[in-house]
Amino acid sequence: MAIIFIIIIFLCIIFCIQLIYRKLLHGKKQYHPIAGTVIHQLINFRRLHDYMTDLAGKYKTYRLIAGPFRSEVYTSDPANVEYMLKTNFLNYAKGWHNYSILKDLLGEGIFTVDGEKWREQRKVSSYEFSTRVLRDFSSVVFKNNVVKLANIVSEAAVRNETMDIQDLFMKATLDSIFRVAFGVDLDTMCGSNEEGAKFSHAFDDASALTLWRYVDMAWKIKRALNLGSEAELRRNVRVVDEFVYKLISSKIEKMNMMTSDDDDPSIQLKKDDILSRFLEVTETNPKYLRDIILNFIIAGKDTTATTMAWFIYMICKHPRVQEKVANEIESATNSNDARDITEFASMLSEDALEKMHYLHAALTETLRLYPAVPVDAKVCMSDDTMPDGFAVKKGDMVAYQAYAMGRMEFIWGDDAHDYRPERWLDENACFRQESPFKFTAFQAGPRICLGKEFAYRQMKIFAAVLLRFFTFKLGDERQTVKYRTMINLHIDGGLSVRAFHRTPTNQSI
């Protein structure tokens, strides 16, 4: 009872100070309505995004009180989003608040820094993601890993066993991003690399504990004293660092030995991964490389894996969509002659993937409702007025809510809560883009996600192979699927499904 009383007193003091501060210093300026405090976020942490969606349904933009002189502003208004991410881009940066929370895990990578450090990494990364070398190399990696995944699914189907498809996607995408980023085969799907599995668990837990800092007002004290969640975060980051630094050291050694025979095909293959290419064009400081690579991993592992898990969930809930996607895959690939999974994957061309408009729409509709990054925060660098006429002040955290925006009827219409891929197709059944300030799953403006096409390619390759050979059903139709509140939108506890072989007469597994 004493703790509850202290919290109530604390909230009252904050509200009073805020009201006095606004009146004395800002005169007639209008501020977005107060919808609560960070204490309410803490209380609702397990359903945080739904809690904030409820608030967004009442106010397109609102404030939460974060301290005596600081607010957090959350918006689902596309006009405000465009203003933040494009029109007045320089005034809405990651800022010290976000940097201090994220830096222990992500260091000075592209997701945590501003200014020259961000521009430098953006420039080099933009070049690398636009090269055909990376596209072709990554496609081969994706195909190899989805074949491994499909064989595991096939074995479960034969035994009529349920499987945690999210866990399998996590392993598959981790294997993919490590092969593309480091040139290293983790093979976590087959369980041959215990170090890789240990790294994966530590990275996931570190991500969740990092997000906890946004609602834990005592995290800096706990960090200084190495207590509780901060002690756990430090242990997990130590595991992550040991693994990554070992890989970087090994790669630098190999690169230093590669001083001749540049035409050797085996050596050229080693230069296809991102780390090798960074080592060719930039510095070799292990900390710098560690930060860059971990930012790539958080961008390329969890985002794709969680989206694929939600996609499987949605098509299990909507079998009509599942069959329509499967029919499109067969039509686009003309795959009647494919004898097995490996052959089909090898035949899967860029042209065939480009023809899969309905699959693209179904994946995009999944991202609308279950964006991989549900909330993205910036910091206001100087006092400003948003397009809706309300003021924000220097130091305020300003965030757009991708999860809430996907559920707003004023953006998507009366069926905003419905899973309907057709909303993304034009009258010719071709995929139709929406404004990135309305569909914010990949950010927008100068910080728009560099890996957008990379992510779609991997998801379409995985979906094409799996749905060409299998039908999926939920392991338990009564299962209540919830998310785990962390940086990315994981399905809490995984997703249990059953797979059944599709049985064209000329297909063998």
Automatic annotation (TrEMBL):
GO cellular component, one term: membrane
Organism for this UniProt entry: Perilla frutescens var. hirtella
Pfam families: p450 (PF00067)
Cofactor: heme
Superkingdom to which the source organism belongs: Eukaryota
GO MF annotations, alphabetized: heme binding; iron ion binding; monooxygenase activity; oxidoreductase activity, acting on paired donors, with incorporation or reduction of molecular oxygen
Keyword Methyltransferase part of the UniProt annotation: no
Protein name: Cytochrome P450
The keyword DNA damage appears for this protein: no
Binding site for heme: C449
UniProt keyword terms in alphabetical order: Heme, Iron, Metal-binding, Oxidoreductase
Topology class, membrane: Single-pass membrane protein
Family: Belongs to the cytochrome P450 family.
CDD domains, per the entry: CYP86A
Subcellular location as annotated: Membrane
InterPro entries: Cyt_P450, Cyt_P450_E_grp-I, Cyt_P450_sf
